[in-house]
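Protocol step 4 of 6.
Sequence for Sugar ABC transporter permease (Niveispirillum cyanobacteriorum) entered exactly as in the expression construct, tag removed. Do not edit the line below.
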Amino acid sequence: MKPSHRAPAIALLPAGMITFVCFYLFIAWTFAISLTGSQLLPRWDFVGLLQYERLFASARWWTAMGNMALYGTLFITGCLTVGYLLAILIDRGVRAEGVYRTIFMLPLSMSFVVTGIIWQWMLNPGLGIQQAVRGLGWEEFAFNWLVRADRSIYTVALAGIWQQSGLCMALFLAGLRGVDPNIWKAAKVDGIPTWRVYAAIITPMLRPVFFTAAILLFSLVVKSFDLVVALTGGGPGFSSDLPARFVMEHILNRQELGLGAAGACMMLATIAAVVGPYLYAEIRQKKGG
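Step 5 output, structure tokens:
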């Protein structure tokens, strides 16, 4: 190693060791626990893949996985769409830009617990939007998604989009501000409509930003716990349950440490299965370019 490279390597060594211990070793420990019959406390009586068999036989687990797929699709698509549209509107030179950016970024400063409580009040049929609209005279108006088993997961997606759209807006706005102004001058000379410039030129240029935002949002989807607990509690029944809540409940409340560890390993496998191909494609494209 060159002397000029030793100082950065030495400076990064403590952080690298902490990451290795707190991340990779704990992943290995969790996988090992998932192969045991651990309940309240860890115990090293290896039972093979029994916990995974129990996990895959659980209807609640598959409900949680289905909810994660639906929630993730709505959440990621909604955040990317709303964030990109807000970034475009601000990039067009709106007045009081700083005020709008502050307003749109404000929900991001709140925790998911606070967001869940706010939306729980807003969507409560007896206190929130439904009651307010009925108070204006529309007695037949109904917006009771929070207490409907077939709609509760959509309320979680709405709350998540409201909070995280500001993050996407900031990422897209930074990308839009990095676009060469000559592109807009050339498009104006050629008479190309603004919407077509965004659709055919600007959006493909922001592909890395879309990729980064999608990865960040997907990580939030997989580990979503506090939002669903604060907003719906996983209910009605288990209709809005998510894998992270399934894992935490079985570890903390049901004393099923081995089963919870198996669920955590499957969550990690889900991340690897979704993110891995995208990372491989990006790396291969960079090498090819």
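Step 6, annotate. The longest helix spans residues 59-91.
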